[in-house]
Amino acid sequence: MIPTKIAVIGAGSASFGLNTLATILRSERLRGSTLALIDMHAEHLETITTLARRMNQAWDAGFRIESHTDRTAVLEGAEFVILSVEVGPREDLWRLDWEIPLKHGLRQPYGENGGPGGFAHTARNLAVIMPILWDMEELCPDAWLINFTNPVPRICLAATRYSTIQTVGLCHQINVSYAIAGALLADELGLEVPANLDSHPNPASHSSCSNFAPQAKALLDIKVAGLNHFIWMLDVRERATGRDLTPLFHERLAERGLPFEPLSQALFEAFGLCPVPGDSHLCEYLPWCHDPLAEPWQTYNLRLYDWEAAKEARRRMWQRVEAMVAGRQSVEELRDVASEGAVELIEAIAGNDNAYMPTVNLPNAGYIPNLPEGAIVEVPGLACGAGVYGLPVGPLPEAVAELCRREIAVASLCVDAAVTGDRQIALQALLLDPMVNDIGRARRILDDYLTVHAEWLPQFHQ
Fold it and tell me: ∠ at Cα 176 (284, 393), nearest 5°?
């Protein structure tokens, strides 16, 4: 056993909260640890804390569980801090992030982590996250921050540039690569591809991908690298034998094409590498997905997030949690939830294991030599007692690297603006974004964002 102290900020998160809690509490190696749950919503926190205690008792996990709406009351002594937060009414603000540029003639293809919407999303979340980092510097300066909050690379960049906290970002987007490769190599792998296979992140459609990807993952080993939500598939191998299936995979892509993800298919044909994150995320970093004359959202079936469906999914999640808390539903079903990677990382660092991590988001230290040093890159990694390290993957093809470098420059300016509240840097971040092609439009979008979101952007109104 390797008892430690783990704090979860945003414990009531609909995206990661249940899976993270369950995988931590079912860990035999972390038995005897302290789990501190933190959330600003007292009612949600009380419900999640009660559920955690039920799991702790039912599974004889041996954890000490504490909770508080004030993080400073429980952060002291934490060795790991898991961050999974979102500011405000998430879907309503995201909708505004998309609608405001549309009013000024810019139709974003998605509006979450890239484009003008990515700026607004980053700035809102960093307004809350930077004080968390400064509290960590005082109360648990040696802790590892494990970040799930989007936009992952921008949050991680802010943490590494503007605080002393050691930070790693985690994301499950690599799973889409297994759905893509599994679909094209199904004959060799003996897999049955679902007729409705779809990797769009909407709650209603994502289940087909999330159910199929683990089947392919059991048979394949895939290496990816690039930027979070902008990663590229470098190597595909048969897991049991190590047989290199990359040439066959590329042959199938060229001959048959993908049964879904038409934008990813087009980029493979142009650049020779298959992007991984799925078209909905990929389209946010490209200059070819918002032309009002070409209407590429029609050509590539680029769909917006279904904000109302997401609200309904959250409502159902809380119904499920409340049923478990009330004893109407068993907590045993949570024993088998998929890990998001946090528990493996914690076990490895606390227990001095050598754990391979399929993807980690870290400052580039030569891992991808033709991307800037210090930029947050997503690469395979190793977690051990000494920390988390990326594994070198070599250079990306130069055209692909240039696409990544452009996003790195935008992200850097966006983070500087979001932390300092500097409006001129914010304008520069928008003007460098590949979706923006007019200075006046950028100014109007920025003015509207800072006015409409003023409650959530105090750094720009001091």
Answer: 85
